[in-house]
Amino acid sequence: MKNDAVIKKRLWISFLIGVVGLGIGIGMKQFSDTEKTAVMIQTNQQNQSNILQGNWKYIDGVERVDAGLKVNPLQRVIVEQDGSVAQTNSPINIAGAHVTDISDGFVINTTIDFLQSNTATIQLYGNLPIIADEFKIDRGSIGITLTKSNLVVKIWKSMSQHPVEVRTFPVKTDQINKLYIEKSHDTYIFVVNGQKVGEVSDHNVFASEKIWFGLDSEDAEWLLRDLRIEKKNGDAVSFADGATVTLQEKNMQSMQKLVLQKRNDFVIGGAMASGALVGDSAFAYVALNDFGSVTPENEMKMVNLQPKRGVYTFAQADGLVHIAKANALTVHGHTLVFGEANPPWLAALPTNTKTEKAVVSKIMQDHIQTVVTHYKNDIFSWDVINEPLADYEEFTLEQPLRAHIWYRAMGESYIITALETAYRANPDAMLFINEYGLEADDERWNAMYALLKRLKPQLEQRGIPVDQVGVGFQSHIYERGDRIDATVLRKHIKQLAELGYKAQISELDVYSADGDTVQADQYVNVLRACLEESNCIAWRVWIIADRYNFWKNDDGHTLQGKDGLYDTSLQPRPARNAIGQYLKQ
Ligand code: XIL
């Protein structure tokens, strides 16, 4: 069914026959047999193995300068729901230059200029990590940090959350340092400034035969002057540019194609992460073919877009937007104002005095203004407000709104301020208030409905068209026995229409323990409820494929669910087939 699909990853250097960029420095000679085995083919491509020549536009914190790549410290992290720091989230060149064929080991030569910094980290990934539910799952990587006096090597095996090996070797450094890394069958050898500093055993990190590059700093900026890589036998490696992920055209059976026959304005979307799109062509095929729109799963949350106060990092999110556009998918921005996934510097701000409150209000407005403006030509619908209602445990009729930092600083007025700021930054964008648990008839829906009634005159007063504002029904079905009653959902969508608002299903995923039939019915019924109401403009799912459907339970174990439309092998599950049948009726 899908052999007409062609995922093309164009090689930006395809003429990689022959080769040899033997830019090997002194000192490492005794560790390399390159000279002996390499067949020297004369080539003008002196820099053939120079990966710095590839695409580095889409890695955060990295800036191209004449002398190389400047790496700025971002201290980017992954945070728990309560805001505590869970893990570092070092920038990776996902939608950019990477190596695709290192079969028999490799040799890397780098030149690191400390500039003002005391640390420089290069991370080599065999597979891109998965960022899932407030944690990151590494899938095989090696982190190499050079400090003024040590070389620290950390190895993460596939599916690990912590390194399986950490080694520290004393080294002599200068301002500018040559770092040489050689990987043979089961060992890495490290050489700094001509001195061998140590060996570490291989943990089969590069079984994929690929290498992705991450660059990071802990304290100040440093400069990567050079990064050359070749195979152990001296052959050149091939590079690819992740930004070139393209699907030639959508299959006529794709959900987005089919739905247009029922309603020509309707959008079918899914949450995606750039790692899966770039690193996994089977996933990319399904995601880019079946869906007409992407919701960046985490890449546009504030923790990622403003990791340091006033420092905006759009590169990785831009990479995802670029891939979406190249494949004619629209982007639904997620999310501007949220109580979670905020950077630690924000969480630490006080909101007691008037001045402190004004500071937080200004930060919110600046963030919205900057982000919406940055994507003004690319993103025409935003989750402006995410999860404004208190969680079930905290929810009361007197205090239904979540008491997060934005609320503490501005009270309920943060909502209209945020909507207005987004509207002014892009008057063409659809503005959503996105929330879970609105599908049933209970006090959460009543509270949302009351809020929307209060908001309506405020929108009108400010000249913001009410029909440009909508409610996102997240529609997460997480528990056994949990069901969405499509009749009630539809009634709520109609109530929104009566007030003049739009609606969308924004994050549907359906728990599997009640069986494939129940799951398939839920997916179809929710789609039907939306499709049959003209003010409901999109149906978006959160889990496209179970291959990327992970979460962590309370004791810290990683679990994998079956909530998605596709399974771990990227085959359609019964729910996906049911959607197809329904759309063809
Ligand atoms: C989740 C993502 O899926 C996880 O990968 C992340 O670690 C935490 O957030 N409602 C939302 C989404 O609006 O942003 C949440 O996404 C799921 C619940």
Describe the structure.
This protein is α/β, with parallel strands linked by helices and 585 residues long. Helix content is 25%, strand content 29%. It contains 14 helices and 30 strands. An 8-stranded parallel beta barrel has the order 20-21-22-23-24-25-27-28, surrounded by 6 helices. A hairpin with a 3-residue loop joins β13 and β14. α8 runs parallel beside α10 (413-425), α11 runs parallel beside α12 (486-499) and α13 runs parallel beside α14 (574-584). Mean pLDDT is 90; it is low at 1-47. The structure holds (3S,4R)-3-hydroxy-2-oxopiperidin-4-yl beta-D-xylopyranoside.
Q: Which kinds of small molecule does this entry bind, naming each only once?
A: (3S,4R)-3-hydroxy-2-oxopiperidin-4-yl beta-D-xylopyranoside
CA-atom Rg in angstroms: 25 Å
**Helix/sheet category:** alpha/beta
Biggest sheet details = 8 strands, parallel, barrel
Helix content: 25-40%
Number of strands: 30
Name the beta content range.
Answer: 25-35%
Please tally the helical runs, counting DSSP H or I stretches of 4 or more residues: 14
Task: State the separation between the terminal residues, measured CA to CA.
Answer: 20 Å
Chain-averaged pLDDT:
90
| Widest sheet: strand ordering | 20-21-22-23-24-25-27-28
- Uncertain segments are 1-47
